[in-house]
Amino acid sequence: MALGIPLGLLAAFFRGKFETVTMRLADIFLSFPNIILILFLVSIFGPSIITVTVVIGILGWPFFARLMFGTVLSIKEKDYIEGAAAIGEKQRTIIFKYILPNAIAPILIQVTFRIAGAIILESSLSFLGMGVQPPAASWGNMLYNAQSITILSERPWMWLPPGLLLILTILSINFVGNGLRDALDPKTRL
Fold first, then answer.
1. SS3 readout for 71-133
2. Quick one: average pLDDT of 118-124?
3. DSSP conformational letter for 185
4. Contact at 8 Å (CB) between 71 and 103?
5. For an engineered disulfide with 131, which of 37, 51, 121, 125 has Cβ 3.0 to 4.6 Å away?
6. Would you give the DSSP letter of residue 156?
7. What one-character DSSP code corresponds to residue 147?
8. Helix, strand, coil % (nearest 5) of the chain?
9. Looking at the whole model, is its pTM more than 0.85?
10. Residues near 184 by Cβ (< 8 Å), separated by ≥ 6?
11. Is the pLDDT score of 186 beyond 70?
């Protein structure tokens, strides 16, 4: 997010070569499946909580850059932006006072959904043995350790709590995202 938002904002506001390079770079990142890139990078740098966190975070920038790019392009065409430029407002003022506050709502909504996706991705990697390594705790590790049929049938306390908490956490984060979308979308207000 910290990388994608400024890149998308600057690419949409200034356009030109910076836009071309930034958006093509985002397209290149988006053309590969994230799980394949993450597995490749984790296998190179070694599975650990730091590696997984950094790799998932860095590979998420194109989504935010594309969203910010599209949002800023639509806001830039509004009359109040043209009015601010006509009265001589500096570009920095236009960006931080008029564009960024109006573009942040879709970003906040997307952040919640991307957090839920990152939790699922980390749990999946840990389940495969390429994420957080024991003895560090991860829901994916806990579910991996409860794979045998004996544990599944005779010891549900080993797999049921991590599975349920993973589901409840993802649902909670998605509900927050839906609530933010409803609260920040002017079309849904009465």
1. HHHHHHCCHHHHHHHHCCCCHHHHHHHHHHHHHHHHHHHHHHHHHHHHHHHHHHHHHHCCCCC
2. 89
3. -
4. yes
5. 125
6. G
7. -
8. 80, 0, 20
9. no
10. 105, 108, 109
11. no
